[in-house]
Amino acid sequence: MLDVLFEDGSLLVINKPSGVSVLDDRTGAPCLLPELKATYSRPRLVHRLDKGTSGILLVALDRHTQRNLSRAFNARAVRKHYVAAVCGHLPSGRTLTIDLPLRQGRKSRYRVAGLREEIRPTRQGWTIDAEGGHASTTSVRVIARGQKRTLVAVQPITGRSHQIRVHLSWIGHAVVGDHLYGAPASNEQAHTRLALHCRRVFAPGYGTFSAAVPEGVFSALR
Asked: Were both Cys, which of 5, 8, 141, 165 would link to 95 (CB 3.0–4.6 Å)?
């Protein structure tokens, strides 16, 4: 059952659950696209969320909206805001910037275009002197601290694949429950889901849409 947050005939906004892929994956598990096609005549995807990530997903219901939203995403005019639970404690009291270029690695993974030990922490965040890769910037701000983890607000300024997860992992604060870029079998990172949720999206010309942070993210804070 689709969790519909907004629908007006041209745009559909749904709250995607964690653990459900938007498209078919190798596991053969149910995904969202067949359900979208069964309910709407021509749903058009304009962006995606990772399988483990929950939250706001925009779906165009006509070609005009698809074109407008695709242009907005390409121009970085769409603003997406996430909440994540991460391992360890980040500096609090200010917004920090993770400015680390990314490139594609092996087996559909992404990595920083440089060596981990070359990443430099600064008062403003994290940076690296590296050649190549695609410029990638993420802002992060502490919301709350648990005993061993931190709840953070995250905004990807650029929109690279897996950007948030790669950036947080490479600065030493992997998203709790991240099987791809962390070690979720460890006590430090183990959780029932990927603790990453897209809570708010602003799409120019269409509005701002919000989805409450699920308990599965809050419960990752300890």
From this structure: 141
Q: How far apart are CA 132 and CA 136, in angstroms?
A: 12
Query: Residues 6 or more apart from 1 whose CB is under 8 A from it?
Result: none
Would you state the pLDDT for residue 67?
Answer: 98
Give the residue among 80, 25, 48, 15 at the shortest CA–CA distance from 216. Answer: 15
pLDDT for residue 10 is more than 80:
yes
Pick the catalytic residue from 24, 50, 129, 178: 50
Within 8 A by CB and 6+ apart from 32, the residues are 2, 14, 16, 20, 21, 22, 23, 57
Full-model pTM: 0.94
> DSSP code of 216?
H
The DSSP-derived string for 185-202 is: TSTTT--SS--EEEEEEE
Is 3 catalytic? The answer is no
Instruction: Look at residues 145, 201, 193 and name the one whose alpha carbon lies nearest to residue 173.
Output: 145
Give 219's contacts (C-beta < 8 A, 6+ positions apart): 191
The answer to whether residue 27 scores a pLDDT higher than 90 is no
- Rounded distance, CA 107 to CA 53, Å? 20
Average pLDDT over residues 20-42: 86
